[in-house]
Amino acid sequence: MSVNGTRELGISDLWRFTGTEFCDCEVTDFLAEGFSELGVRSDSVEARLTGRCIQCGATGTTEWVTLGNIGDGDDRLFRPVDPDTVQVLSMTALEERT
Ligand SMILES: [Zn+2]
Known about the structure:
InterPro entries: DUF8134
Protein name: DUF8134 domain-containing protein
Bound molecules: zinc ion
Oligomer: single chain
Largest sheet: 6 strands, mixed
Organism: Halogeometricum pallidum JCM 14848
Pfam family, one: DUF8134
Strand order of the largest sheet: 5-4-3-2-1-6
Domain DUF8134: 1-91
Shape: elongated
């Protein structure tokens, strides 16, 4: 799978999430400018995104955001998640990975 260019995967540049200390917004409206890390956990493709919150202007790297899921069919088709969904991220999830 190519990690160059989110648009090839149909991944949005805009993400909404909560539950992190990324910024003080109740829900962070995050404009992604790139990946810091990309990973696959079971059937979900996740990334730590770099960019900024368009609400308050905070910049940095997010916790792991789910970009999409790999289908269990023979084609293993990648399906991006709906970017309008507010994802609940947490430091705990990050710690479980290490
Ligand atoms: Zn913010």
